[in-house]
Amino acid sequence: MSIRRLPPEISGKIAAGEVIERPASVVRELLDNALDAGARRIDVSVEQGGKALIEITDDGHGIPPDQVALAVERHSTSKLTSVDDLARIQTLGFRGEALASIAAVAELSLRSVTAEGQPGREVLARDERVIEERPVGGARGTRVTVRGLFRTIPARLEFLKAERTELGHIVAAVTRAALGHPHVAFTLHDGHRERVRTPGDGDLRTALLAIYGATLVDELIELPPGQTLGIDGFISQPHLQRSSRADIALFVNGRWVSDRLLSAAVSEAYRSVMPTGRFPVIVLNLTIPPEEVDVNVHPSKAEVRFRRSGEVFRRLSATVRRALAASTEIAPARLDRPIVDQFYFPADGARWQTGPPPQSRHLGAGGGPPADIATDDRSEPAPGLRSPVMRPLGQVDSTYVVAAGPRGLYLIDQHAAHERILFERLGHTAAAPTQQLLDPTSVELSAEESDWVASHADDLQRLGFDVTPFGPSAWLLRAVPSALGSIDAATYLREVVAEAQTPDFQRLAAADRLRWSLACRAAVKAGGPLTFDEMSALIRDLEACDLGITCPHGRPTVILLSRELLDREFGRT
């Protein structure tokens, strides 16, 4: 076949397909233009999920009348003047393709006025051509109206989802713009129904309140301004979780991005405090010099590339982790039914212990004498949990430690709590305490398992294992971590090596997963009776943890039955 130049109407639609994927793409591009124009108020109206109508009105500085027609031509922009500008882009839009791409797949009306009382211009474009142009007047700003998206491209129209789905993408686009630019007032109407309204007062918290409501926002942690190395915003407590990443909004210099590096940094920060497959609520903006980030790597501008990606990863992860450690609090229990339906006390007292059990176990959690048990409800908050000092009262089923404090009644999962204590202790020491085996133990492994042990020998040694080759497929254990206690070391090593082949293990650093595994196996088990001294030591050690409110798997270690909840359940309020 002979080579030929594509007709403009075909090449234009192909190029438009890279920029305009669905109605939300139109909304996002037009919002970028409005924000770049210095708008302080942006109103969005859509019909039929954006398929029939998208109209965006702003109060920005407008387009000079003699340039309105030029604005809908491909590669026309006011935001770049030289190649050097690509290295320090400070605007949201810059490619000069948005309006032309929209005009290639829909009917576009562009009306703009630079000053109230001054003449403006309105153009009507279709198939990338201006088909009508006329003078207009009115308030300063720009209004863009898009009708019949993909009407002339039935194949693209068929790929659009249901109206509700497309509207959901539009709501997400407007919400992200509002969170990234809280100084701008946004509204979104779907027909006659208002979907989004933000005040535009410059306070991110009020924007969050308008979008999420007070119940959720009250449970968010605000990063301290001026102390976060260019990272500002809100993160959620570990107990506030979502089943998807939909409520993670990350911005770079006000630009919403979907970036793997930043997502991985957030996951790293929440590792060991949130279960696998659960995600936090996050709204964060990273302020980075424009020359340090390349935003010109994807047609939709949703992906970016950092010049110093490792530094950005470490800075974001450490900042979020510090905020979690400094601000986490025990989540109050929420009972859907009265307490008496969930707790009962048989006459034989089998489910409640009020004194030291007949047999006690050493936790291996603290060392040294037990901490003093606080009896004054005005005690200072303890570090880590940021909760008042708790005093133990007893156990339920030798599984949950019951403690009292100023805020109410605390229930502590003894296994989860001890697991967190051991996990953090193993991470804070360069080499874990070991115990030599009187008789070294031989462990037979497969060739694949032996390769894994050989490649992670240093990590095993830091945990307290002294393991050396002992033949073609055997290893000799001479020492094991002291934390293992009476657990069979050979069995533990086989189990860890088997776990190493699972996807969960491979998603984490081997050293962290080994710590996790050792802490889980060495921790006191549910059903293990504890003395009051051991309960007190467990509480003190848990309060001293950096992130003591969850175990390494992300399950809670403590729940609070608050005084207010108890008063309500007992009819005192």
Short description:
This protein has 573 residues and is an alpha+beta fold. It has helices at residues 8-19, 23-36, 68-71, 98-105, 154-159, 163-180, 204-212, 214-217, 260-270, 309-327, 414-428, 447-455, 457-463, 489-499, 503-506, 510-522, 532-543, 563-569, and strands spanning 41-47, 53-58, 107-113, 120-126, 129-136, 141-147, 185-190, 193-197, 220-222, 231-236, 248-252, 255-257, 282-286, 293-294, 305-306, 391-396, 400-405, 408-413, 434-444, 466-469, 474-481, 558-562.
Features:
single chain; 573 residues; alpha+beta; Heat Shock Protein 90; Ribosomal Protein S5, domain 2; formyl-coa transferase, domain 3; 4 domains; eight-stranded mixed sheet; five-stranded mixed sheet; elongated
- Compute the number of strand runs: 22
Q: Ranges with pLDDT <50 over ≥5 residues?
A: 337-362, 364-384
CATH hierarchy: architecture of the largest domain: 2-Layer Sandwich
The tally of domains stands at 4
Shape: elongated
Number of helices: 18
Largest sheet: 8 strands, mixed
Q: What proportion of the residues form beta strands (DSSP E)?
A: 15-25%
Helix content: 25-40%
**CATH topology assignment of the largest domain:** Heat Shock Protein 90
Q: Strand pairing plus helix content: what structural class?
A: alpha+beta
